[in-house]
Amino acid sequence: MASIYKRSNNWTVEIVYRVDGVRKKKRKSGFTTKSEAQKWANLTESKKYSGELSTTAKLFYPTMLKWYQIFKEPKIARSTKLWFNTVLKLVEKEWPDKLVSDIRSSDFQELLNKYGQTHVKVSTKRVNNIISEFGRYAFDEGYTTRDFTRNVYNTGKVESKTAEMKFLENDEFQKLIKRAKQSNSISAHMIITACLTGMRYAEIAGLRPKNVDLNNKTISIVETWDQISHEFKPTKTKSSVRTISMPDDLVDLFKKWEFGDGFVFQGINGYPSTSAACNHTLKNYLKKDNSKQITFHGLRHTHASYLLANDISVQYVSERLGHANTNITLGIYAHLLEDKRSEENLKALNKLNILNK
């Protein structure tokens, strides 16, 4: 029960509650009438019984930062760390003085709306996912009594790159491989490997000589290379650990290339070429052949698109790329190369025309 008493000409309310098992008091003075004091007492008592007063008062940003450092940073990949740091900076900027217990769904939605004004929808979704993950943790820990992540939606007003801009067409793909073969640079070797295997940059950089079996024509992907910390790290997902077969062309090239002691693609500094160096080389090659500009990761898209467009089963492509299931593959590569699209369109129309005869 609230304690209401009069001091001088004003009324004071005092309510006892507990936070993490510790007895606390909430007191407010300055009410001119007892009815005003009673009204505040009733409102505060309702918060007490709903659990709102029992939450530990914690600022949102430092609490989320500590959660990230303990539960996330030690185990996530560099690319994921970049996203977490982006979200942490956003939270620090938008909610510098907000308590975890203060955040409501409307606050969260306003943050997503504002971010979505200058970003694509998929980026807003990442922000939503990361903050929502922390929100569930905060709720479980008793830092807030409300799930502020419910009923929010993702927005985005900036158009993302079209699927066509993320991979090369057949002729561009062939030109790139031919041009890269003319160079003996580490970056060129890594580009060819990406084209013919669909491996990620970190997977290619993390290849050790023991991972390449030239007799059985296979590559075993068991770890990745973090170019920032200069450490071997686990693969992106468990399903990314896999053994894939190599085409004869790549086997012949591997026999000609000189492997390093620690890495298959080892430069004079003892490390593989950086992603920046590979992207720079790739950009120059594509420019020389008047091909569309894509990133090194776009070679993975190109590899998958090429196989799918040539009637290779989605199950095989999914396994080759290291996806957990075919739904992921279909979601990313639900497109065909331009030549294949035209071919399928013609086949479909021919079949439909038969119905009219």
Explain how this protein is built.
The protein is mainly α and 357 residues long. The chain has 3 domains: 3-54, no CATH class; 61-141, Tyrosine recombinase, N-terminal domain (DNA polymerase, domain 1, Orthogonal Bundle), CATH 1.10.150.130; 164-341, Orthogonal Bundle (hpI Integrase, Chain A). It contains 14 helices and 8 strands. It has helices spanning 34-50, 60-72, 78-94, 105-116, 121-141, 170-180, 186-197, 201-205, 248-256, 275-288, 296-309, 314-321, 326-332, 338-354; strands at 3-7, 10-19, 22-31, 212-213, 218-221, 224-226, 231-233, 242-245. The strands form 3 sheets. It has a 3-stranded antiparallel beta sheet with strand order 1-2-3, with helices on one face. Strand 6 (224-226) and strand 7 form a beta hairpin. Helix 3 (78-94) packs across helix 5 (121-141), helix 6 packs antiparallel against helix 7 and helix 7 (186-197) crosses helix 10. The protein is elongated. The model has no long low-confidence stretch (mean pLDDT 88). Belongs to the 'phage' integrase family. InterPro entries: AP2-like_int_N, DNA_brk_join_enz, Integrase-like_cat_sf, Integrase_catalytic, Integrase_recombinase_N, Tyrosine_recombinase_XerCD.
